[in-house]
Amino acid sequence: MKKTITQFSRLFVGILFIISGLIKLNDPLGFSYKLDEYFSEPVFNMPFFVPYSLAIALFLVILEVVLGVMLLIGYKSKLTIWLLLLLIIKFTFLTFYSAYYDVVKDCGCFGDALHLTPWQSFSKDIVLLFFILILFFNKKLIKPLFANNVQNILVLTSIALCAFMGYWVINHLPLKDFRPYKVGTNIRTDMSIPDNAPKSVVEMVFIYKVNGVDKEFTEKDLMSLPAGATFVDRKDKVIVQGYLPPIHDFKLDLEGQDNTDLVLSKEKALLVVAYDLVKANPEAMQKLDKLYKDASAKGYYVAVLTGSSNDVVESSKKKYGLSFDFLSCDATALKTIERANPSFVILNYGTIKQKVHYNDINDLNL
User: Fold this and answer.
1) Are residues 137 and 218 both part of a single domain?
2) Which mean pLDDT values do the consecutive 10-residue runs of the chain (366 residues) have?
3) Which of 121, 170, 180, 279 is the most buried (most CB within 10 A)?
4) Residue 187 domain flag
């Protein structure tokens, strides 16, 4: 019985770690954005780690996959199980902290393929911790499946393949796009809310300074505020989240005017997605003027979508000699469309026909 439970735990933990790691390895930049949330001020306030988020993300996801492989083939079982235990303790702490303090809404455990609430993520880690503890107390039952030379080759091969996959998806596109803006998506349709969709329940919270301390009050409390309370701010607290469409933050502004419908109504539209113009690849930006002329000659409406400020936009226009529209959009939404900065998206009446990394600009089907 003990052996059966141990071998089941071995398969369950190994396969789950491989699946979880591969999904995140398919989009390491997306996982690095999630790490940025943990490093930010509302959570752990460790901004000095932010420049290294991508490197940390790649290390963690490759480690996940390789540990899963090592467990399944029984490679150095004591070391493998110790590393798994340390990793799951770290993950369990992070997911508990996120859930209890409500600071990170999605841990990113399975990337964009499967979104879990903070408490669901914590529960998943508790289950994994349970099975890893079974393995920890029964390490002697984990035997290698192959000879040492074969084991070494399999582990080194898994490391090499993971490293290559990480390099490929960072410099091109994810092998599988799980995001709301995948090819074939009609943006207008995925922004719509059905008439019978459940509505959010929102409570207004008022913040007053009382004796030098900011305190929160509900609308019912306003009739009995402490003497000398001074109004500071008001925020909306979501009690029950209603229906949220797959795409809910796509809004394109041109000099304060909403141009979203205009862009989505175009038969041919080429959108250059550059969430941060300062960090945009300069070689790709230098090709935009020629791309604009070629696309315009074929009847395309061309625009840059960016989250950068007006000053940065004007500076970029001057630097690269660009004269077409620069539309403002939320930077987080733009990162969701595509990770590359810049990337290229072709729309047909709001339907995404093609997405291309700046390294593959010659593959655009204009």
Assistant:
1) no
2) 88 93 92 82 75 91 95 92 92 81 65 73 88 90 90 95 95 90 94 83 85 86 84 79 84 91 95 95 94 94 94 94 93 91 96 96 92
3) 121
4) no
